[in-house]
Amino acid sequence: MSAPADPALPSAAGAVVGRRIGIGLMYGLWRPRVLGAWRVPTGGPVILAGNHSHNVDGPMIIGTSPRPTHFMVKKEAFVGPLDPIMRSLGQVKVDRTSADRTAITHTLGLLERGGVLGIFPEGTRGEGDFASLRSGLAYFAVRSGAPIVPVAVLGTGEQRRADGRARALPRLRSRVDVVYGDPFRAGDGSGRRTRAALDEATALIQKRLGEHLESARRLTGRHNET
Q: What is the pTM assigned to this prediction?
């Protein structure tokens, strides 16, 4: 018999429902072109590391990933009626201003049970070019041993209104490219979590994610887009 599910962990069943909702919304509102999704391992723990230039990037990965995904989401998004909804869909609430031990425990727990973690390693929405990475991704990858799959979401961050202001949402029915890369491991297999080991892993991750982003831009013809 399998061990009973830990009720404290983000809901695996909720992530399944979240994926179904994501599929309906992302394909209903836009035209995602998904490349390389077959590269996501079909079983075991996986970390999907995406670039982040628009609020729709997380739902876009959730809706195009071949497996249900638990995303690390800033606590500010868990407000009002959204709080129970986000929790029920298996998302991970994280306080970005401190070492959120609850979020860390939940994240490692869902990876231990073989789940999929979605994370924006830049920590917040920005240029979406992986230029500045936090060490959180390296910690989770080294601690869990889970492979990292780079994900490039292109076509959400550069669309502007006629007056030059950024759009609250990408233009409806516009094409968004989501490119999944080859999985890789950040650690050396020893599980070492010293500062030097994490710095080394972060440097490797930044290199691999940056290379994937450039490759995805060439593949899709979006050389100047995020």
A: 0.90
